[in-house]
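tool_call: predict_structure(chain=1)
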Amino acid sequence: MSRHVSRHRSPREARGSIRNRRATFPVLAAGAVAVLLLVVWVAMDFPPLSSGGADSKARSGDPGSSATPGAPAAPSPSSSPAASPPSSSSPPAASPAADPDQLLSEQLAPILAATTASLSVAVLDMEDGDGADYGVQAGKKTYDTASIVKVDILAALLLKAQDQGRVLTAQEKSYATSMIKVSDNASADALWQAIGGADGLDAANERLGLTSTTGGSGPLWGLTQSTAADQIALLSAVFGADSGSPLGAGSQTYIQGLMGGIAAGQEWGVSAAGVVTGLKNGWLARSATGLWDINSIGRIVADGHGYLVAVLSSGSVSKEAGISLVEKAAKTAVAVSASGDDGDTEDAGGAGGR
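tool_result:
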């Protein structure tokens, strides 16, 4: 017997079908409203819808839009050269090199602040030619040389002998040895006369490259006026290895030998800055003031470099104070140059107060 299957839906199925039909009506109504709005929009001739902002409105040529195009968008920081951060691989900008004269002046400032004396200081690195100079400009202020002028006197004597095509006499050599090694004033008197006094010294200095040095008047060789920079020029003529010096090789060797054998008790001065290979000091108490002129010139070696150093001073309250001042200045001068790589009272000479 076959089973009869009823075609009537259950009350639950019927209620579900009704809910489905009811949900369809709002969707159809919403669609109809949208179509109606679109028809009204077209009929009213509104501008077309766009998502392009002010720029797309300007590009459209729509007469209803502003005649002034929209402002272009600001460039992004990443695309602007001015706003781009510097590359980490780019080398840092080079800082300007420090001026050696200014650096020397700055380093000497605390030394000078502790004294009423004045200084003229110069240094030259013989390896690379770098140097520094402190003091008033040449021609505006000079210093009494005292006995450092004895090197200048000997250089003038040797130039004179070279011009005459001869070597020094035994007497001249004896005077030269005493004048340089023990700073004998009587020997300096004799050789001062031999070179023609101040005129002979000035003529020799013109050849040696000293431009701000003037021989002392009459017999007063110790009151010759000079600067530290001029003393470096003199030392360059004595110790320079090139052919630019007017002194012949034999004359250079002779002066170097004497300056390398200074008597015991006179080894102070620029020698404090390194191992000394040539030295001459001068000291003079001025009778009018009781203050001291303390000077030192020479060649020293420090950290494998040869340096020419000259320190001239005036106005120290004692010889000892002047020596201390000169030695501090010499050390400072050599340190500055290297960084860019880093006895008894003596007369001035001559009769009548030297």
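agent: The chain is about 40% helix and 15% strand. Proceeding to next step.
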